[in-house]
Amino acid sequence: MDWGLALAIGGAAIAVALSGMGSSIGIGYAGQASTGVLSEEPEKFASLLVLSVLPGTQGIYGFVAAFFVMFKVGLLGGNPVALDVAQGCQIFLACLPIALGGLISGIHQGKVSAAGVSVAAKQPKEFMKAVVLSALVETYAVLGLLVTILLLVEIKV
Known about the structure:
By secondary structure, the protein is mainly α.
């Protein structure tokens, strides 16, 4: 068994899994808040959808990181490269910034989006302020993805 390749694949999997978990939890928070408002004001669906979907981007970032890993190790071309354990560990560790950043920021972005639902319900003209506040949390998932990509690019395989 190629343990280096297994570690690299594990890094890709954890990037997708943890980022996806953060997104799904965050969307759950925002979605719960949104459905409460929609039961009385269904015309606000569009603005509430925006707030509910924002935490979903972290899962996408995790997928992008996994794609970079799969491309780097040759899984997409059908010719996986042989990696030593050190290279596999490097790739695994390079995936942690987006994995952990996506998990935590997805959850907290969902909480900010859920709070923003109240703004959209009570002060519809101030809806974009709620979106901006929610997007600020996402900055750290973007930074995590950027660090992951920069680290992956520098790993020699």
